[in-house]
Amino acid sequence: MSAIESISFDHTQLLRFITAGSVDDGKSTLIGRLLHDSKSIFEDQLSAITHTSHRRGMESVDLSLLTDGLQAEREQGITIDVAYRYFATPKRKFIIADTPGHEQYTRNMVTGASTANLAIILIDARKGVLTQSRRHAYLASLVGIPHLVVAVNKMDLVGYSREVFERICNDFATFADGLSLSNIAYIPMSALHGDMVVERGDNLNWYQGMALMDLLENVPIDHDINLDDFRFPVQWVCRPQTEELHDFRGYMGRIESGFIGVGDAVQVLPSGLTSRIKEIVTYDGLLDYAVAPQSVTLTIEDHLDISRGDMLIKPAAMPHVTKEFEAMLCWLSEQSLDPRRKYLVKQTTRVVKALVSRIDYRVDVNTLRHEAAETLKMNDIGRVALKVHQPLAHDPYQRNHATGSFIVIDEANNNTVAAGMICAAKD
Fold first, then answer.
1. In angstroms, how far is the first alpha carbon of the chain from the final one?
2. Percentage of the residues of the chain whose pLDDT score is greater than 70
3. Distance CA 317, CA 310 (A)
4. Do 3-218 and 320-425 show the same overall fold?
C-alpha cells in the first residue's frame, strides 16, 4: 500500500450517514437501537428515557427518545430538526444525522444529507413504498450520496414475511432505475425488537445478507473522495511577521480533492498563472505530498498574486472557469427567490455577486414532475441558470462535491437563502 493509499484508508474510518423515512416508520427507534445495542449510550441517558417511557405507560423503553431531542418532536411524535449523534465501534467511527421525513422540512433533510456517505431509507413493511420513500430517494440522488440502504422495518408486524420484503424491494428498484443511484442494499429488520440491526436475531433466517451494523462497518467509502482532480481553494495567505520568516509566503487551505507533491506543476485560477510546489507545510513538519481532505500550507517557487478565493489546480485536470452556469437549487429561506434581486454566491472560499437569470423548472418532490415556476419558495427545489460577476472555477457536482456546490446569501442581511449543486456549465 502506498502512502497516499494509506492516508485515504485512514479517512474511511469515519462514516457519516443519514436516516430518512415517513412518519412512524421507526427511524428514531432505529437510531436508538443502534446506540443501545452497540453500548454507545450512558447509564444516565438510559435511565432518563426509561423513566419517561414508564411515565407514558409503555412496557418497554422507547429508544426513539434518544434522538427526538426537541420538545415539539417529543410532543408530536415526529422528527423536525436534524439530530446528530456520534458513536464508535472497534472498526469505525460514525456520525448519524436523523433527518425529517415531512415535505415541509425538505431543507433540513438536504442539509443533513449534504455531507453523508450513506443514506438509510426506512420503509414500513405494512405500507410498502410510499410517496415519501420516493422523495427521500430522489433527494439522496440529488445530493450525490454514493451508498443507499433500504431498510424494510417493522417486519415483525407482517410475520417476517419474505414475500412482503421481496415485493417492496422490487417496487423500490423499479423506481430507483430512473435515479443516479448505483449502490443500493436492501435489509429486512425490526428496529423495535432488534432483528438485523446490530444482531441478526432469530426471526429472519431466510435473509442471507449482512445485518445493518455489519454493513455500516464494512461498506467501502475510500473511493467516495475524488482523488483524480487536484483542487485547493486558498483560505488564507500566511505572512508571518517575524524576523526569521519575513520572506515566507504560504497559502493555507484544505485539499478538497486529488493530491499534490513537492515539485508538481500548479496553475492559479482564475488568473491562469503557473508555478511549482516548493513546500508542503503542516504543524507536524514538512511533507513530500498531501491528499484530500488534508489541511496544509503550500508554498510555490514563484512570487505570484494569489489571494483568498483563488484556487490551485493541476494543469492536466482543469475545472470549468465561467461566469455562467446551471444548477439545482434548494431554497432554504422563508422569503421567496426574487429573480430581479442580486445575491451573493459562496463557492469554496470565493464569494461573488450573482443573479438568477432563468428558472427552468421546479421539481415536485413527491411526483418528481417538472413544473413551470417564476420563483422558488422555502423547501422548493428547481433548476436555474446563474450569472456571476467574476469567474468561478467549478466542476459538475456529481464529479466533485466540494467545487460543484455553493450557497446563496442575501447580501442585505447575510442570511443563507439557498444551497446549490452545479449540473452544467456554459463555456
1. 40
2. 84
3. 16
4. no
Residue 45 makes CB contacts below 8 A (sequence gap 6+) with 66
Distance CA 85, CA 422 (A): 30
Average pLDDT over residues 89-115: 79
Residues 27 and 154: beta-carbon distance below 8 Å: no
Give CA–CA dist 250/304, Å, rounded: 11
Tell me the Cα Rg of the chain.
24
Under CATH, domain 231-313 is a member of which superfamily? Translation factors (2.40.30.10)
* Binding region: 21-28, 98-102, 153-156
CB 258 within 8 A of CB 228: yes
Q: Which residues does the annotation place in the binding site for GTP?
A: 21-28, 98-102, 153-156
Q: Which amino acid is at 43?
A: E
Cβ atoms 110, 57 nearer than 8 A: no
Cell of 60: 418497554
Query: Are the C-beta atoms of 366 and 135 separated by less than 8 Å?
Result: yes
Q: Is the peptide bond before 233 cis (omega within 30 degrees of 0)?
A: no
The residues pairing with 359 across neighbouring beta strands, listed in sequence order, are 384
Yes or no: say if 237 and 307 are a contact pair by the CB < 8 Å rule: yes
- Locate the domains of the chain by residue range: 3-218, 231-313, 320-425
Q: Which CATH superfamily is domain 320-425 in?
A: Translation factors (2.40.30.10)
Q: What digits encode the pLDDT tens for the residues 38-87?
A: 777 656 666 766 667 667 766 666 566 666 554 444 444 444 456 678 88
Amino acid at 196: M
The CA distance from 365 to 157, in Å, is 29
Q: Which range is least confidently modeled, 29-43, 54-68, 225-239, 249-263?
A: 54-68
